[in-house]
Methionine aminopeptidase 2
Amino acid sequence: MLQQTKDGEAEAANAATVEQVAKQVGDLTTQDDPETDTAVDSGDKKKKKRKKKKKPAQVFEKAIANEYRGIYPPGEFQDYNLKRTTNEEVRADANLEEAEKSWNKFRKGAEIHRRARKHAQENIKPGMTMTEIADLIENQIRDMAGTNDTLKGGIGFPTGLSLNHCAAHYTPNAGDKVVLQYDDVMKVDIGVHVDGYIVDCAFTHTFNPKYDGLLNAVKEATNTGIRTAGIDVRLTDIGEAVEEVMESHEVEIDGKTYPVKCIRNLNGHNILNRRIHGGKSIPIVKNGDPTKLEENETIAIETFGSTGKGYVVQSGECSHYMKNTEPPANASVRLDRARKLLDTIDKNFGTLPFCRRYLDRIGEEKYLLALNQLVREGLVTEHPPLVDVKGCYTAQFEHTVLLQPTRKEVVSRGDDY
């Protein structure tokens, strides 16, 4: 059926096209069949066979083919009526708009991350101090950030350089004398942010190949977590998949065989703008949590393997701090020095994690008493090193993943891992 349009010109054009096609059909129906037989002599009378005409369907098909040369015109286009109406739907539209704005910023941060970690992998050597290694990585990020404003871009959190049985949250403080050894297993956890959108990505650096089995187990577990993660996937299902792969491995180190265990109280997490831990924990063991991942979330899939107990506790001098995004309502700051320090934190870091070296770098002095008061009042949270049993080895691999509506993007993926 023909459909009326509001545009008179379009209607006239359609009518002209129909008339033209009809004329061609009429012309073709009056043409002789080229295969008509000649007259046949049957005595005194000559008889002619009747000329055959092509069937209307064949004629119409040929006319249409000649007219459009196989490229047929479209019909009427109409937009889908996808206007969101419920509060949840409106919120979903807003989340998508925000997510789309963030994707290119995550990609910029990821490119800086890839270059910074390549620089680190090529230049870290045994005999370097932890401070030299941290400066090597962080100065590279600062140089590539394109801004001196630490709130607009640059380091997303203190560079983790946790060694051996220490799994996470170690970075050197001023005066740290620890030196990297050939037989060390170092977790290099690097954060880069662009306008508060944080790329969280880590690898494990070793020199001695005897640890290759441990590193491969953890890397495989991380990739399994990435493959499993997605919109509407339950958190416990990700943990179960990671655990199954990780703990299927055992490794031999110095003649002794160890089962590789997931460090069950360390997790991945979702990432919000200027909040490295957004509220969801992504387990690396089956834990029964039915919470599901959602469209447009940004997540960090990170897994930790250990030759020890597979459980960490806080130990050692604290270096990592972060302003509390949900401070107690009754928090108060009595010391003038503490109020000034909190103002410095707001201006330089906001809610991004920081360490004592960063305070030293911007000229803060004699701040430990004030910093401890901010911690006691709940305005700042502290995150000491996390360690398994001494003498064991731990490894970590991590990537940042964007859960886009129709696909996921492992934004920090590189040629190295």
Summary: Residues 40 and 47 are 6 Å apart (CA to CA). Residues 87-123 form the longest helix (37 residues). The chain has two domains: 67-83+92-317+385-410, 318-383.
